[in-house]
Every structure is written in structure tokens, then in C-alpha cells.
Amino acid sequence: MENKDEHEVFNYTYSAKDQDEIRRIRRKYAPAEEDKMTQLRRMDAAVYKKAMVLSLSMGIAGALILGVGMCCAMVWQGTLFIPGIVIGILGIAIVSLTYPLYNRTLKKEREKIASEILRLTDDLMK
Length: 126
Known about the structure:
By secondary structure, the protein is mostly helical. It has helices spanning 16-29, 36-75, 81-96, 98-125. Helix 2 packs antiparallel against helix 4 (98-125).
């Protein structure tokens, strides 16, 4: 092999500040390594989050339906009073079902991930 002249080789070293910046940027794009405790917390929070989103969505929809019924009953007393009462009762029924929906969703989601949670907790308690 032939020897390369000194001026043909390119060497460059980064400063410590540049190295820190490179590491920070690299961490943003590298796949995140998750320890078992973080994974356990994330899975537990996901169960509650799904139940909360479903029950809040249903509660908000029920409250809006109740409001439409009240509007019909109060503003158009002659023509839409009875339909307004019926719509309002429907809204009340929907709102009253949000807590049972929350509990049911929470129970189902817990059952789905119970084996994984128990495996992780067994590993962590060792």
C-alpha cells in the first residue's frame, strides 16, 4: 500500500460543547429505551386514560343533548315544549350512564393487560 501524504488526510475533532449537542440531538432520534418501572407506569396510566376519555366524551355529549332539550322547552314553549322535555330526559339518561361506562371500561382494560402488569411487577419485586 502506498503512504498517503499528510495533506491528503482530513482529521477533525469536535469540542466538548459540540459533543454534548450531538448527543442531545442523537437522543431525540434514537429509539427510547424504557425501563420496567416506566413501562409499568405507562401501561397503568393508559388504562385510566382510555376510561376517562370515553366517559368524558359521553358526558359532554349528554350535557349538550340536555342543553338542546332545555332550549327547546324554554324558548319554543308552544311548539317544541314536549319534544324538548323528551330530549332533556334523554340527555339526563346519557349523563347518568357515564360513571358505569367508566367503571366497565376500566375493568375491561385492566383485564386486558393484567398478565403483563403482573409479570412486570414480579420482575420488579425480585
